[in-house]
Amino acid sequence: MAEIAPLTPLRYDFERAPLASVISPPYDVISEAERKELFARHPNNVVRLELPDGEGDAKYGVAAALLDEWIKSGVLIRDGEPAFYRYDQSFLPPGGGTQTITRRGFLAAVRLHPFSDRIVLPHERTLSGPKEDRLKLLRALRTQVSPGFMLYADPRGELEAPLETGTVVAEFATPDAVHHVLAKVTAKDAVVAIVDGLRKSTLLIADGHHRYETSVGYRDEIGGTNPLGEHRYFMTFLVNGDDPNLVVFPTHRLVHSLPHFDFDELMTKAQPLFILMKRDDKPSADDLLTWLAKEAPTHPAFVVVAKGGRAAMLALKQDVDLAAHPTLGPLHPALRKTDVAVLHSGVLENLLGITQPAQAAKTNIRYPQDARAALADLTSGNAQALFLMSATPVAQVRDVAEAGEVMPQKSTFFHPKVPTGLALHTLDPSRSVPRAT
C-alpha cells in the first residue's frame, strides 16, 4: 500500500518572504493577468519559478537561475527537521455559500509508483502538453515546486490525533478570502502513527495528475541506486477522503465552435436516452443550479442551456439498456453512474460529434467553474451551449479509480486549490528522504 515519508524541504524564510505574499495558485489555473499580478506582489513570489519569464525553452533556465539565487541569498532555506506539514484552509463555498468550511490535510513525500501498481490511482484523463512543460521545468530546477493533492482512506479518523500535535509556523489570509494555517508535526510517535496509517490505504489523485505522471517519468529518467532518493518521492497534500469537510464542486462545460448546433435538434436526438424537462423562462445560473439540485434524480442528470436562454434538464432513463448503447455500452458500469461520463459519451460524443481528442484539445469545449460567468459568456455569444453539472461525489470518483478506469478531464473541482510555495521538495538522488522509525 502507500508509503510516505516526512519532508526536509526548502521553504521560504518567513521573515524575509511572508507566505501570504509569495505563494501562488498551481500553474494550470493562472491567467496571464493573474501571473502579472503575482509577479508584482513580491520579488520572490513562487510564480517566477512556476511560470517563469522567457521565450521558448529559455524560460526554464531563467527559473533555475532564480532558484539558485534565492537559495544562496537565504530567501529559501533548508528545513532540516523531518516533519509532516499540517495545513488547514478555511473558506466560504464558491457561489454564495455562507458557512465556513475548513479542509485539513498535510504535506508529505509519497513514494512514486506507476499507475499499473494500483497504489496511486488516477481518476481522470491527462493532456500531453502540460506534461512536456512540467518535465522540462523539473529537469531545470531539480526541485518540485508545486505539490500534488491526494486522498487517503481513514473512515475512523485515526490520523486526527497525531496531526493535531503540530506546532503552527505560519498563519495568514490571502486575497481570495481563504484563511491558511501551516503547522509542523515532528513528534516521533505522531510521525510513525501517520506513516503506519497511510500503509492501510491506496491514494487517489484529487488534483495534479500531470505533475504526478511527470514526476514518475523524471524518476525513471534519473535512475540511480539510492532506494530512498528524493527523486523517488512526490510532495503531496494528503487529505482524508472520508472527511465530511472534504467538499467537491462542479466543473461545467461550454460548447463552442461547432459547425452546427440546434437546441431543438439536440432535444430530439436526446429523447431516446434521456427524460427531458424543459424551461423557457430564461432562468439565472443560480436558478438552474437550484433546479438541478432539487429535481435531479439519483441517476445521471445535467442541465443544458442554449444561447437564447432556453434550458432543459436531461435525466438518464432507467429502462434503457445502457450496455447496448454505442457509446455508453463500452463504459465500465462505475462510469455509467457518473453525470460527467454520461454527458461526454452519451451527448458530447454521440449526439454532438465532439471526439475525445477534441475534448482533450479543448477544440469545442471550455471548462468553467463559475456558472454565472459561464452563462454570461454564453449569452454574449461566445459559445453555443452550456452544460451545468452537479459535483461528482468522492465515493463515485474512488469507485471509478478502483475499477481501473478514468473519467473525462475536469471531472472534479476541489476548492480551494492547494497553493504552490508552501514548501519545495528537492529531487537530489543522493539525498534520502527521512525514515520514520
Instruction: Describe the sheet with the most strands.
Output: 9 strands, mixed
- Quaternary status of these chains? single chain
Structural class: alpha+beta
Beta-strand percentage range: 15-25%
Low-confidence stretches: none
Alpha-carbon distance between the two ends: 18 Å
Q: What form results from the Cα inertia axes?
A: globular
User: If you average the pLDDT, what whole number results?
Assistant: 93
**How many strands appear in the DSSP assignment?**
21
Rg, Å, rounded: 23 Å
Number of helices: 14
Helix content: 25-40%
Write the layout of secondary structure elements.
Elements: E1 4-5, E2 10-12, H1 19-22, H2 32-41, H3 47-50, H4 58-73, E3 76-78, E4 84-91, E5 101-111, E6 120-121, H5 128-141, E7 143-144, E8 148-152, H6 160-164, E9 167-173, E10 179-185, H7 188-198, E11 203-207, H8 209-222, E12 233-240, E13 248-249, E14 253-255, H9 263-270, E15 274-279, H10 285-295, E16 301-306, E17 311-316, H11 339-349, H12 356-360, E18 365-366, H13 371-379, E19 385-388, H14 394-402, E20 413-414, E21 425-426
Parallel strand pairs: 6-11, 8-12
Antiparallel strand pairs: 1-5, 2-3, 4-5, 4-10, 5-12, 7-21, 8-11, 9-10, 13-20, 14-18, 14-19, 15-17, 16-17, 16-19
